[in-house]
Each structure stands twice: as C-alpha cells, then as structure tokens.
C-alpha cells in the first residue's frame, strides 16, 4: 500500500483556497480532502457543492476526497458528484441504509467510502467492507480542525488492517484528525495509508514545506512498519 497525504482545506485560508491547495499539492499532497459540514450532524458549517465545483475548475486533475459530515447524505450526494468529487465518504452514524447510500455513490461514478466516529466500533462496518474504496477512521470527534489526536483510534486502525488481511480485502485505511509530525508514525505503524492533515499543513508557516515534511515522516515510518 502506498502512503498518500490528503491535505484538508478546513485549515486553509478560505479567501485563497485554490492557491493554498496548490501549495499543499506541490509539497506532496496527492488527494485533496474536502470537509463538508451541515451544522446538524456536526456543530459547524463549511462548504457545499459550489465550492467543490470552483475548486474543480482550478484543479482539474486532482483527486477530490469529499468527507460528508451531514445528515441525509443521499439528498446531497448527486450534487457533490456533479461538482467534481472523486471519492465520497459518509458517516456510518448518519446513514440508516448505509449499503444503499454506498451504492448510490458508486452509481454516480465515484468511489464510495465510510467513516466512523471515535465512539463507533469497527465491527459496525463488517457487512460493507467488501464494497468500499476506503474506510476513514476519525481520530478526533468531527467538526473542527486542530483538535487533539485520540490515541484509542490506533487500535481501531490496527483492527481494520487485521480484518482486511484476514478477509483478503483491498479497501484502503484513512485517518483524519490530529495527524501531525508527532502522531504520524503511530498512525502509519497502526496500518493507515491515507493521511488527512489540516492544521499540520495549513495552520502555520510554509504550506508546501509542511506537507513535504509530513509526507517525508510518513514515508520514513512506512519503512519500519511491521
Ligand atoms: C474534522 C475534519 C478534518 C480536519 C482535520 O472534522 O474531518 O478533516 O480538517 O483537521 P486536523 O488535521 O487539523 O486535525
Ligand atoms: Zn475530514
């Protein structure tokens, strides 16, 4: 599995989103993580389809990873697909008919993925692991950037990696929240390959250099992964 950095624009300057995103991609980010919040499923509001569509015009070839932290995702998934999303992830906790929602995403030509909050056990995903492109393990409670990494999420990443191995499946494992220079080797050693990072990339200093350093640390950790 290849390690990839997915810069999260949540911590970027929203008045210059495309420029900040480009800097993070130049630093080695290969997937752009777009956090969609509705003020209901999580206590914050961020972006909707028009912003995704504008970014798509500015970045025609970048993989867009749309993380939907919203209620009733089925009502909005087609608009995000139209806007240019490549991967669309929905929260297990927000989907009554999770399998149907994942099928909807796939039917629109996007890669379907599922997310679990820190309090949600991995086994709640048992019946969909063979249909998802990736599983996103939240390592903070969703809603805000720059929160403290929750260490209990490492065991969930390990469990997922073990289940994937034992079942011979190929979904990828993504982690989101508090990923920074001091936590990145732990998440890589636990088994994550898609690393979302907001504050560590956009929060301070030089965006390009921050991305480069974080990806470098992740790759170094990969060399010592069991
Ligand atoms: C939080 C979002 C994250 C957020 C992570 O609800 O899903 O993608 O940007 O931010 P950091 O990396 O700052 O913890
Ligand atoms: Zn996210």
Automatic annotation (TrEMBL):
<feature type="binding site">
    <location>
        <position position="67"/>
    </location>
    <ligand>
        <name>a divalent metal cation</name>
    </ligand>
</feature>
<feature type="binding site">
    <location>
        <position position="35"/>
    </location>
    <ligand>
        <name>a divalent metal cation</name>
    </ligand>
</feature>
<feature type="binding site">
    <location>
        <begin position="176"/>
        <end position="178"/>
    </location>
    <ligand>
        <name>substrate</name>
    </ligand>
</feature>
<feature type="binding site">
    <location>
        <position position="178"/>
    </location>
    <ligand>
        <name>substrate</name>
    </ligand>
</feature>
<dbReference type="GO" id="GO:0046872">
    <property type="term" value="F:metal ion binding"/>
</dbReference>
<protein>
    <recommendedName>
        <fullName>Ribulose-phosphate 3-epimerase</fullName>
        <ecNumber>5.1.3.1</ecNumber>
    </recommendedName>
</protein>
<feature type="binding site">
    <location>
        <position position="33"/>
    </location>
    <ligand>
        <name>a divalent metal cation</name>
    </ligand>
</feature>
<feature type="active site" description="Proton acceptor">
    <location>
        <position position="35"/>
    </location>
</feature>
<comment type="similarity">
    <text>Belongs to the ribulose-phosphate 3-epimerase family.</text>
</comment>
<dbReference type="InterPro" id="IPR013785">
    <property type="entry name" value="Aldolase_TIM"/>
</dbReference>
<dbReference type="InterPro" id="IPR026019">
    <property type="entry name" value="Ribul_P_3_epim"/>
</dbReference>
<feature type="binding site">
    <location>
        <position position="8"/>
    </location>
    <ligand>
        <name>substrate</name>
    </ligand>
</feature>
<comment type="function">
    <text>Catalyzes the reversible epimerization of D-ribulose 5-phosphate to D-xylulose 5-phosphate.</text>
</comment>
<keyword id="KW-0413">Isomerase</keyword>
<dbReference type="InterPro" id="IPR000056">
    <property type="entry name" value="Ribul_P_3_epim-like"/>
</dbReference>
<dbReference type="Pfam" id="PF00834">
    <property type="entry name" value="Ribul_P_3_epim"/>
</dbReference>
<keyword id="KW-0862">Zinc</keyword>
<feature type="binding site">
    <location>
        <position position="67"/>
    </location>
    <ligand>
        <name>substrate</name>
    </ligand>
</feature>
<dbReference type="GO" id="GO:0019323">
    <property type="term" value="P:pentose catabolic process"/>
</dbReference>
<dbReference type="GO" id="GO:0004750">
    <property type="term" value="F:D-ribulose-phosphate 3-epimerase activity"/>
</dbReference>
<dbReference type="InterPro" id="IPR011060">
    <property type="entry name" value="RibuloseP-bd_barrel"/>
</dbReference>
<comment type="pathway">
    <text>Carbohydrate degradation.</text>
</comment>
<feature type="binding site">
    <location>
        <position position="176"/>
    </location>
    <ligand>
        <name>a divalent metal cation</name>
    </ligand>
</feature>
<feature type="active site" description="Proton donor">
    <location>
        <position position="176"/>
    </location>
</feature>
<keyword id="KW-0170">Cobalt</keyword>
<dbReference type="GO" id="GO:0005737">
    <property type="term" value="C:cytoplasm"/>
</dbReference>
<keyword id="KW-0119">Carbohydrate metabolism</keyword>
<dbReference type="GO" id="GO:0006098">
    <property type="term" value="P:pentose-phosphate shunt"/>
</dbReference>
<keyword id="KW-0479">Metal-binding</keyword>
<keyword id="KW-0464">Manganese</keyword>
